[in-house]
Amino acid sequence: MSLTYWGSFLYPVKFLFLPVHRLGFILDIPFTNDHQICSNIKCLHGRCFNYLNTKETFCQCEKGWSGQYCNIPYHCTCSPSNSLCVGMLNNNRSICICRENYFGSKCYVRNRICDNNVPCENNGLCISHDDFMLSSSKQKYYCICPKGFSGSRCQVKDTELNLIFDKDIHLSHSIFIHFLRIIPIDEYIPRIPKPSPSRSTTLQTISQSTN
């Protein structure tokens, strides 16, 4: 289990006396992870980086080190096979990022809801819910569907639309496709006003190698 570092943001908490903090920010995540490395000789066992949204800097510590200047050694107590240890809190408690279907402060507890009869169809990835996830569904898991499938269990095959053009028609590099959906008269309830036709538009890029 590994993570690729992309960048860090700094948003200070202004009112420390409040028991609960609800912070709302818009993060402008860059397309590339070109880290802005700085120079700080105080980073003993780490590297100096700039925050993406401020001019302030911080020390990104190497494995086994923590503290403002990466000068405090620590021993991670997270599960070595089910988690990724990313640091230590002030009370010497390890910060553990659990892999899918594992939870607990040290990621040793496994949620086996996804082991029962493989609820996701068509090679969908089953992820179990935990108590900290906000969901209106009573389902105790959700499925990440592969391309071409959707639904709560990836059981629905997405509709495909194949367009074939005559070889003598010259096509540009992109094409706009307009869809117009009209509900037939036998598919709506008579007492409810008939909905108006709905229209949607999509832009598709045509590859140079497409015949």
Report the end-to-end length measured between terminal Cα atoms.
41 Å
Q: Name the overall outline.
A: extended
Q: What would CATH call the class of the domain at 112-159? A: Mainly Beta
User: Helicity, in percent?
Assistant: under 10%
Q: Estimate the strand proportion.
A: 25-35%
Give the topology string: H per helix, E per strand.
EEEEEEEEEEEEEE
Sketch the major β-sheet: 2 strands, antiparallel
From the 3D structure, determine the CATH topology of the domain at 112-159.
Answer: Laminin
Low-confidence spans: none
Task: Tell me about this structure.
The protein contains no helices and 14 strands. It has 211 residues and is mainly β. Among the domains are: 33-73, Ribbon (Laminin), CATH 2.10.25.10; 74-110; 112-159, Laminin. Strands 1-2 form a two-stranded antiparallel sheet. A two-stranded antiparallel ribbon has the order 3-4. A two-stranded antiparallel sheet has the order 5-6. β3 (65-66) and β4 (72-73) form a beta hairpin. Residues 34-71, 110-155 form the EGF-like domain.
Tell me the layout of helices and strands.
Layout: E1 46-50, E2 57-61, E3 65-66, E4 72-73, E5 83-88, E6 94-98, E7 102-103, E8 109-110, E9 125-128, E10 141-144, E11 149-150, E12 156-157, E13 174-181, E14 198-205
Antiparallel strand pairs: 1-2, 3-4, 5-6, 7-8, 9-10, 11-12, 13-14
